[in-house]
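Budget justification aside, the reviewers requested a transparent look at the raw inputs and outputs of the sequence design task funded under Objective 1. We therefore reproduce one unedited record. The lines immediately below are the structure tokens for a 185-residue chain.
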């Protein structure tokens, strides 16, 4: 890992921790959690917004106006509005995705949740994702939060990763193993 990446992760974690502590002090943790998820969804759906956030060509003032407008339109809490404005003022919006990820990780840890990454070759319905989540929660005897990703390159099957445990049942992986065995033979 490069020192630049380590610096950005540490910086994002610091901002996330500051927001987390502010929310705890004001008893608005769950409200800000929902707002940050909503904002994250908005960020992920809008490529233009993402580009504006990281672009050095867009002025700090323009970024602040855009962030304020989004916060006001969505009736975000005062804490979250002030936080977004502070990040924009400090010209740190390019860290925002990492800050959001770090903040949500802090909340998950405080709730005792485990995180899992689920990747499938076919698009899974919400019901299928919930079924897998329930099954994994039973297996791990803990609440489990699933981040789902669709990857058609897997050809068939699933990849589930919970912490350091990974189960790969994808056809792509099996074909790679077969290819490796054939080359070694």
């Amino acid at each position: 890992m490069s020192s630049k990446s380590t610096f950005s992760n540490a910086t994002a974690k610091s901002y996330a921790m500051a927001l987390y502590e502010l929310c705890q002090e004001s008893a608005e943790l769950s409200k800000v959690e929902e707002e940050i998820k909503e904002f994250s969804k908005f960020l992920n759906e809008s490529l233009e917004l993402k580009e504006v956030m990281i672009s050095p060509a867009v002025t700090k003032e323009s970024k602040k106006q855009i962030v304020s407008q989004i916060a006001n339109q969505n009736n975000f809490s005062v804490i979250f509005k002030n936080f977004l404005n502070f990040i924009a003022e400090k010209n740190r919006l390019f860290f925002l995705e990492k800050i959001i990820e770090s903040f949500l990780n802090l909340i998950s840890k405080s709730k005792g949740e485990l995180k899992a990454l689920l990747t499938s070759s076919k698009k899974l319905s919400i019901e299928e994702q919930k079924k897998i989540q329930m099954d994994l929660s039973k297996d791990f005897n803990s609440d489990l939060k699933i981040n789902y990703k669709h990857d058609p390159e897997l050809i068939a099957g699933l990849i589930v990763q919970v912490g350091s445990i990974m189960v790969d049942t994808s056809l792509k992986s099996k074909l790679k193993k077969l290819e490796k065995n054939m080359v070694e033979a």
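The beta strands are 114-120, 144-150, 158-162, 165-168. The first helix runs from residue 3 to 25. Computational costs for records of this kind are itemized in the attached budget.
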